[in-house]
Amino acid sequence: MKEYKVIVPLNDTWILKQLNVGDRLLLSGEIYVFRDQVHKKIHNGELPDTLKINFHNSAVYYCAATPPKNNFVIGSCGPTSAYRMDEYTETVLSIGFRIMIGKGYRSSKVVELCKKFAAIYAITYGGCGALLNKYVKNYELVAFSDLGPEAMYKFYVSDFPSIVAIDTNGNKIWTVET
Amino acid sequence: MREITKEQFVSAIRTLLVHANYFLPEDFLQAIKTAIETEVNLVAKDVLLKILNNAEISSITKLPLCQDTGIPQFFVDIGKDVCLNFDINATVQNITAEVYENEKLRCSCVVDPLKRTGKLHFGSVYIQCLNKDELDRRCKISVLIRGGGSENTSVFTNFLPTTNKEEIITYITETIIKLLPYTCPPVIVGIGVGGVIEESMILAKKSLLRTIGIRNKDLFYAEIEKQIKDAVNNSGIGPLGLGGKTSVLDVFIEAAPTHIATLPVSIVLQCHSYRKHTVVL
């Protein structure tokens, strides 16, 4: 088990191929944040073309944070269950995303897609939204503001922690059938 | 007849919501500490330590324990000599909206489930009039704050009344193991057996208000609770599904009379953000 500090968006996807299941991944830079409804909108072609170019070699974090309070820039911001995005994952990878962060197991189809796109899925600390707050330095709204907490945001993160759960070779951290 | 005023009730609802969103219960924290001592998987140990760390941060900063501040589910048990002369449901909705707004808790509900339109703060309320001696002149209000992940990993099944105990235990165990990785383990499991169908689910949810380590008074069910807990922990799924022997902290079963033709079973998984609190008025 190794630890990798990675800057996102990636300049070079070479680093992703070095990651193995179980490795610790610390992300710094900009990550896009969206979940169920935005996935559906992207899948249905409702994403403005002007935005798509930004997603090249980017990370997506499945999260809907609580509002900022008490001088914190954002509220609690832990991951949501990733399996609900499985159906839309091919679309999201095809527009440039290469790192997915969430919690829980994914379908065997997503494992195959990670291999096909040389992408990875990493699990972060589910149910620890107050703890994860400290890794998010700032955030901004990107699109679909009408969706409220589950709109598309961008988080500016520093050493945001996760554990590689599917690597680019199609290995996965779980042993059960999914 | 003792009257509980609206002011007393409002104050209790406020206390429940504020407390449960920032403080995990003592029985849970103790169970996590015990698990840390016995867990040998280092990743599992790390996750369990982070759960304690998160609880500490939340209690100090008043950032909610989990960003999914969910749907608060209230269980109001009213003794037979108690009178609440106001609209309980409307009061709960108003105070939930007020507290969630003031405390900056996430607005996680849509008004229409299929159209997915409208946002609101919402609390579910189950009122039961009890005949228990200890509650004669009292009203007990409990809350479980449950996120979408925990709700999505809760199921109901109708069995044939001739199904034997072993088959039911196998089904429950396999179902829990299958659902575990899609919520946040280690979980606490509530199981409702019998009743009419909605009653079985309420039994399962209300059982989650029990203290970790306390077994069903009926030894028959107490034994099944232990059996299911051990079997699920042997699955190796572990905290957050990353491996280890701490998948479930406890299993609670509650049973109720049922029809000769039916055998309803409800299984409710409660994630490790075990937000429960009770106030007795």
Low-pLDDT runs of 5+ residues of chain A are: none
Provide the CATH topology of chain A: fumarase
Architecture (CATH level 2) name of chain A: Alpha-Beta Barrel
State mean pLDDT of chain A (0 to 100 scale). Answer: 96
Q: What is the β-strand count of chain A?
A: 7
Could you give the order of strands across the largest sheet of chain B? 6-2-7-12
CATH classification, class level of chain A: Alpha Beta
- Name the overall outline of chain A: globular
The total strand number of chain B stands at 12
In short:
By secondary structure, chain A is of the alpha/beta class. Chain A contains six helices and seven strands; from the N terminus they run E-H-E-H-H-E-H-E-H-E-H-E-E.
Write the layout of secondary structure elements.
The complex is a heterodimer of chains A (178) and B (281).
Chain A lengths: L2 E6 L5 H5 L5 E10 L2 H8 L5 H4 L5 E4 L27 H6 L2 E6 L5 H10 L2 E4 L5 H4 L3 E8 L8 E15 L12
Chain B lengths: L1 E2 L2 H17 L3 H13 L3 H20 L9 E8 L3 E2 L4 H15 L6 E2 L8 E2 L3 E6 L9 E8 L1 H5 L1 E6 L5 H15 L7 E8 L2 H11 L11 H15 L14 E9 L6 E8 L4 E6 L1
Parallel strand pairs in B: 1-3, 2-6, 9-10
Antiparallel strand pairs in B: 2-7, 4-5, 7-12, 8-11, 9-11
Structure description:
- The complex is a heterodimer of chains A (178) and B (281).
- Chain A is an alpha/beta fold and 178 residues long.
- Chain A has helices spanning 14-18, 36-43, 49-52, 89-94, 108-117, 129-132; strands at 3-8, 24-33, 58-61, 97-102, 120-123, 136-143, 152-166.
- Chain A has a single domain (3-166), classed as Alpha-Beta Barrel (fumarase), CATH 3.20.130.10.
- By secondary structure, chain B is an alpha/beta fold.
- Chain B has one domain (2-280).
- In chain B, 40% of the residues lie in helices and 24% in strands.
- Chain B contains eight helices and twelve strands.
- A four-stranded mixed beta sheet of chain B has the order 6-2-7-12, with helices on both faces. In chain B, strands 8-11-9-10 form a four-stranded mixed beta sheet. In chain B, strands 1-3 form a two-stranded parallel sheet.
- In chain B, a hairpin with an 8-residue loop joins strand 4 and strand 5.
- In chain B, helix 1 (6-22) packs across helix 4 (88-102), helix 2 (26-38) runs antiparallel to helix 3 (42-61) and helix 6 (165-179) runs parallel beside helix 8.
- Chains A and B meet through helix 6 of A and helix 3 and helix 5 of B.
